[in-house]
């Protein structure tokens, strides 16, 4: 019995030792292998394109004639002739109408006869004065008689002046019976036909003439545009202290684009209180008579800033709640966020007015894979080539 008890104790000891060894083995874990660091993300960087920003503003306008004349009858009489073709071009001085001149010719003849009579009376009065001077010196006539003859000469001279003025008026009225074109232009239809009495109670409107070349294009510019663009453009193209001169383009209602060109030559002196706009006027050549007064015009004006500023592709500039920004790479290859202010895009590029300089390295490809503070590797590319690859350049 004691031997079996000893064997049982030995067996317990072996079991306890085995359990301890198993527990010790389970408590040990294999140490993980150290992970190799991920390589920095590759991005493409480029310097912004420096150019003068070009912005296009659009307005609505209307074509007007430089000169528009209403042809009216200035004397009373029956219309005798219409000497033009309606809708044709007329030259200055070309006869248009003839009013019956017989009454006015009679007035001219009467005034001429009166002038001849008054001239004869003045000659007689002058001779009387000359004789009276000689007789007065020898006391052959009294002073009263001499003064009377001198006064009669003055009255005759005044009457002659009045008669000549009456003759000038009669000749002027006679000239009004032939109505000529006062300007070069296209004449409208005649409002009065032959045989009608004109000028009876007021100067009768007979027709109108509008100048066709050049024309005026008038359009209104909002006050904001006036300050932002027109007042701050290059002084070689527009002077804010004088009447502005800048080239614009426009098209009429049936044009798809803006095929015509004009030069602004006038800016109004004040902004309209009701609309907050100011009127501008441009001179439009119209040698081929394609355009007509009254046509609606779509006006486009391109403005260029004097100094070049950075330009980037549209895909490079991002916007969030804080505004527009771009991602750049510093000298130690870290990503840096730069907040920028932009101007309208043109030709696939966005103008950066603030926040960027020409020397900045902007991430133009791979910017969606990185964030500010990350370490990156870079390749330098040409922004123009990137735009060509993106289809933003021909």
Quaternary class: single chain
Gyration radius (Cα, Å) is: 49 Å
Overall spatial form: rod-shaped
> Main sheet, how many strands, which sense, barrel?
6 strands, antiparallel, barrel
Q: What structural class should be given to the helix and strand makeup?
A: alpha+beta
Count the DSSP helices: 5
The helical percent reads 25-40%
Ends apart, CA distance between termini: 108 Å
Q: Could you spell the SSE succession in H and E letters?
A: HEEEEEEEHHEEEEEHEEEEEEEEEEEEH
According to DSSP, the number of beta strands is: 24
Mean pLDDT: 85
User: Strand fraction band?
Assistant: 25-35%
Give the low-confidence spans: 233-244
Q: Going across the biggest sheet, name each strand in turn.
A: 3-12-15-14-13-16
Give structural notes.
By secondary structure, this protein is α+β, with helices and mostly antiparallel strands. The protein is 28% helix and 34% strand. It has 5 helices and 24 strands. The chain has helices at 2-27, 102-137, 143-175, 223-230, 383-390, and strands spanning 41-46, 49-51, 54-65, 68-72, 77-82, 89-90, 95-99, 178-180, 185-187, 197-198, 205-210, 215-222, 247-252, 260-267, 277-284, 296-304, 309-313, 318-320, 323-329, 335-339, 341-346, 349-354, 362-365, 376-380. Strands 3-12-15-14-13-16 form a 6-stranded antiparallel beta barrel. A 4-stranded antiparallel beta sheet has the order 2-17-22-21. The protein has a 4-stranded antiparallel beta sheet with strand order 4-11-9-6, with no helix packed on it. Helix 2 (102-137) runs antiparallel to helix 3. The longest helix is centred in the N-terminal third of the chain and has 36 residues, at 102-137. The protein is rod-shaped and about 195 Å long. The chain starts with a helix and ends with a helix. The model is unreliable at 233-244 (pLDDT under 50).
């Amino acid at each position: 019995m004691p031997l079996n008890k000893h064997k049982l104790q030995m067996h317990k000891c072996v079991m306890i030792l085995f359990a301890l060894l198993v527990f010790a083995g389970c408590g040990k874990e294999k140490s993980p292998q150290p992970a190799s660091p991920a390589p920095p993300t590759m991005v493409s960087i480029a310097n912004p394109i420096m150019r003068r920003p070009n912005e296009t503003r659009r307005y609505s306008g209307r074509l007007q004639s430089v000169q528009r004349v209403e042809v009216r009858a200035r004397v009373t009489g029956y219309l005798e002739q219409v000497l033009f073709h309606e809708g044709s071009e007329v030259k200055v001085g070309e006869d248009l109408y003839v009013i019956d001149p017989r009454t006015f010719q009679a007035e001219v003849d009467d005034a001429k006869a009166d002038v001849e009579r008054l001239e004869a009376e003045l000659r007689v009065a002058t001779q009387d004065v000359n004789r009276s001077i000689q007789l007065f010196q020898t006391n052959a006539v009294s002073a009263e008689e001499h003064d009377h003859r001198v006064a009669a000469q003055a009255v005759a001279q005044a009457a002659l002046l009045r008669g000549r003025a009456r003759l000038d008026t009669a000749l002027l009225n006679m000239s009004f019976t032939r109505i000529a074109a006062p300007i070069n232009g296209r004449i409208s239809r005649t409002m009065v036909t032959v045989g009608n009495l004109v000028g009876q109670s007021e100067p009768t409107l007979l027709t109108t003439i509008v100048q066709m070349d050049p024309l005026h294009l008038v359009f209104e510019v909002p006050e904001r545009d006036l300050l932002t663009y027109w007042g701050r453009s290059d002084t070689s193209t527009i002077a804010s202290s004088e009447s502005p001169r800048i080239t614009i383009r426009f098209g009429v209602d049936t044009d798809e684009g803006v095929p015509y060109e004009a030069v602004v030559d006038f800016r109004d002196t004040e902004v309209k209180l009701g609309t907050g706009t100011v009127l501008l006027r441009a001179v439009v050549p119209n040698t081929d008579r394609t355009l007509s007064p009254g046509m609606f015009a779509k006006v486009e004006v391109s403005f260029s800033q004097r100094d070049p500023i950075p330009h980037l592709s549209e895909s490079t500039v991002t916007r969030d709640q804080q505004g527009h920004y771009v991602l750049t790479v510093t000298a130690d290859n870290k990503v840096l966020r730069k907040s920028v202010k932009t101007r309208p895009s043109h030709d696939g590029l966005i103008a950066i007015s603030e926040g960027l300089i020409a020397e900045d390295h902007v991430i133009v490809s791979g910017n969606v894979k990185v964030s500010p503070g990350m370490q990156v590797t870079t390749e330098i590319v040409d922004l123009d080539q990137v735009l060509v690859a993106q289809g933003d350049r021909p």
